[in-house]
Amino acid sequence: MIRALPGTDLWRKPPAEDKHNAPCYVANFPVADFRRARVTISANWTRQYDQGGLVLFLPGWPVRRLWVKTGIELYEGKPCVSAVAARSAADWSLLPMSAGQTKVTLEIEREEVDVKKGTGSSLWVYIVENGKRTAIREVTWVFKEKEDTAGLISIGIYAARPTKEGQNDAENLVVTFEDLTIQ
Length: 183
What we know:
This protein is mainly beta.
C-alpha cells in the first residue's frame, strides 16, 4: 500500500513542467537481468489524475531522467489504464476500463533480442485478465541505446495524487498493490 499526498506526480511536459515527487518504492536490478514485472493495482479513485501502478527508471536516473509508468489513472471521473513514457518529454495514453472496474493486473515485459525476427529493444505493457495477456502499448526506445542496456534499472510501484482541493488539502490517495512480481 502507498499513500500519496495531494500535489504529488510523476510527469514531464516541456518547457517548464517536470515533476517527480510521487512516492515510489523501487528495487535496483542489472538491466541484463530484468525480464518482467507484474502487479495488481486498486484504490478508491476519486480525483482527476489519481494514479498508481508500476514504474521503471532507466540507467543513469536521476541524471538521465528516463522512465516508464503504467497503472490506473482517473480521467474525467472514470478509471483508465494509463501508460506514460518519458524521454525529453512524456507522452500519455489511456484505455478506458469497464464500468465499475477499479482494479487491474498489469505486466511490463522486456522484449527478447532476436535479430532474425527483428525484435529487441522494446518494453511491452500488458493487461492480464483471466490468465490472458493483452498488449496495450509498445515503447520501442527503452533498451535501444548502449547506456540503456548497461548498469542498473530501478523498478517497482508508485502512487500520485496531482489534484489538490485547497491550500491545506491533506487527503491521501491510498493505492493497494497485490502480488508484485519482478523477474
